[in-house]
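Appendix B, record 7
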Amino acid sequence: MAFYKSNWFKYFKNLIIGLGAAAVMLGALYKIMAWPGGDLMLTIGLSVEAFIFAFLGILPPQQDYYWEKLYPGLDNYHSNLSPLVQSSAGGRALDGEVVEKQLGGMLGELESISKNMGSLKALQEVDFSKTKDQIKTMGNFYDKMNEAMMHISETVEDTKTYKEQIAAVNKNLSSLNGVYGNILNAMGGPRN
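Structure tokens (predicted):
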């Protein structure tokens, strides 16, 4: 392992950065307040900071992830990744099928969450500002529909009554026709 990856070096690097920043701050304070020694403190602090920036520019960037712990040998291009499936003792260190099932389950959950978020977004985009007016209009429509149904019902009753009256008139006309026919027969038949 390289020295710059060791814990003592990381601690030393943070210590130098912190002390250099403190020296710059104190130097700036002394300079702003025109206190004696401000020029010297500011010069020392800025020199330390310049050294730190040059030093950090030389060091390679640090990795922020630790995939090597899950996949041993990942940081070595020529490594054999067989320890992922089987450990050197013959036991199973990490079962690929189990990992695949877990990742598949997580993927399913993420897809479900994505669909739900899409539904929520669609619901958010719906304009409900005119809903009250639409509900009022629908209420008026149903009131008018009920009124029309009552009129139709009344019309059906009126039609039924009219039909009964027409049947009674027909019956009376048939009776009158019979009486008239009898009178004509009694008088000697129809005259031309």
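Remarks on this record: Residues 1-61 form one domain. Residues 32 and 168 are 119 Å apart (CA to CA).
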